[in-house]
Specification:
By secondary structure, the chain is of the alpha/beta class. 33% of the residues lie in helices and 25% in strands. The N and C termini lie far apart (90 Å).
């Protein structure tokens, strides 16, 4: 009798373990974000759409539980995007075969009407829960998409930062604005709870907003962050919910492997893998051909020698160089540039116009005005010795004036000049050598 009881106990344990195992299903989220039209590998030979396409196909091969998502800011960063106002990049990106995408703030850089064209380009279902007009109508057709992956109902919500208006001039957004993302996502996730087994947020959000969703919206099991160009050093977990964010610009493909307890609607385990996109990955032929077609169209404009740099300029060092060029070309006392407008490095060695286009892809015009020292933005006085009673000439870009950034709110700039990019190219041509 004792042996029989032991046998029954063992069988019950085995049955319980088998039942528990049956409730777990695999889900793999492949994710990229902030590709910023980086069609070609960078100066360090990292990235490139064709290599990224190959990496995606490799991960998808034989994977019945994979879902590929894009975190926004597909455009704005290279000449193809700037010259053709983004649409070719969306057309090229169809070859990635994203299954769900969301929008980023830079997807509005060419004006909301152009963004509406992006939605029709056939990249994938593009979802965003919190960009609305005055009547509450969504900019995208849907706030979320539900995909059945390996028997799991996966709801993917898209969202943008709550201060979208600080990133775009009013004329670019037109009647559209962003609602607070945390509150909006919480309400929507509550409504979706009965229709989904797991809810994922693909959020093009500010640094504080991404962890806020993780900690404050328990219905969201996975937060895939974008907008911040540097990835998290490691996956962040809170109460069996996770937050991940990869590097920008096509330099990596990220894979989040999950075990989902479907009846409990929660994650049982997780593993995050970061796949670097480099020269060891061969280019996808179809993607490479499409990229080459568009790059050939812009090459005559941008692959033109303009000078030489004795060293590499990057970050704050490059911003200072741009301010210097701006001031010298306009005859101003000071130049003012935002760090966010500096999008690449200026390499050491021969310089092409393309290098400047990559540094400043935005069509920002230089504006100039005269102000007393006491009226100048505080950041100028922090760097330069300023007499509060003396009149100075300040040059900056129209983006900062339109958004009131860096202390320019309320200042009136009387003169509007050429594009900053053109000023920078002309300045390098004049200098011939910068150091």
């Amino acid at each position: 009798m004792l042996r029989l009881r032991r046998l029954i106990s063992v069988l019950l344990l085995v049955a319980a373990a088998a039942t528990a195992q049956q409730t777990l299903r695999s889900l793999s989220l492949l994710h990229v974000g902030d590709l910023h039209a980086n069609l070609l590998p960078d100066a360090q030979d990292h990235g490139g759409f064709a290599r990224l396409a190959t990496a995606i196909r490799r991960e998808q091969r034989g994977c019945t539980s994979c879902l590929l998502v894009n975190g926004g800011d597909l455009v704005q960063g290279t000449p193809v995007s700037t010259i053709y106002r983004g649409l070719p990049v969306y057309q090229i990106a169809r070859l990635f075969h994203f299954q769900v995408s969301t929008l980023g703030n830079h997807d509005f850089d060419y004006g909301w009407e152009r963004t509406a064209e992006f939605l029709k380009a056939g990249v994938s279902p593009i979802v965003s829960a919190n960009v609305v007009d005055g009547g509450g109508r969504l900019f995208t057709r849907h706030a979320y998409a539900i995909r059945n992956v390996n028997g799991i109902r996966v709801a993917v919500i898209g969202a943008l930062m709550g201060d979208l208006e600080n990133y775009e001039a009013p004329v670019k957004l037109g009647p559209w604005h962003s609602l607070p993302p945390v509150e909006t996502v919480r309400k929507l996730a509550t409504e979706l709870a009965s229709r989904a087994d797991i809810i994922v947020l693909v959020g093009h959000l500010e640094p504080a907003e991404q962890p806020a969703v993780l900690h404050e919206v328990p219905q969201i099991s996975v937060v895939i962050g974008a907008h911040i160009h540097t990835g998290l050093k490691e996956l962040q977990e809170f109460e069996h919910r996770v937050w991940v964010r990869g590097d920008c610009c096509g330099q990596e493909l990220d894979r989040l492997d999950l075990q989902v307890d479907v009846p409990a609607k929660r994650l049982a385990s997780w593993n995050w893998k970061r796949i670097r996109i480099d020269s060891t990955i061969p280019p996808d032929p179809a993607m490479a051909a499409e990229v080459a077609k568009w790059e050939q169209r812009v090459s005559k404009v941008v692959d033109v020698p303009i000078g030489e740099s004795k060293r590499e300029f990057a970050g704050a060092d490059l911003r200072t160089l741009i301010e210097r060029a701006m001031a010298e070309q306009t005859g101003a006392d000071f130049g003012l540039m935002n760090q966010g407008g500096v999008r690449a490095k200026l390499p050491q060695g021969p310089l092409l116009a393309r290098h400047v286009w990559n540094v400043m892809p935005f069509d920002n015009k230089v504006v100039t005005g005269k102000f007393k020292g006491s009226e100048l933005p505080p950041v100028v006085a922090q760097v330069h010795a300023v007499d509060p009673n003396r009149e100075y000439t300040l040059s900056t870009i129209d983006f900062l004036v339109d958004t009131g950034g860096m202390g320019t709110r309320g200042l009136s700039f009387s003169q509007t000049g050429p594009l900053l990019r053109d000023i920078m190219i002309d300045w390098i041509k004049k200098k011939q050598v910068i150091e």
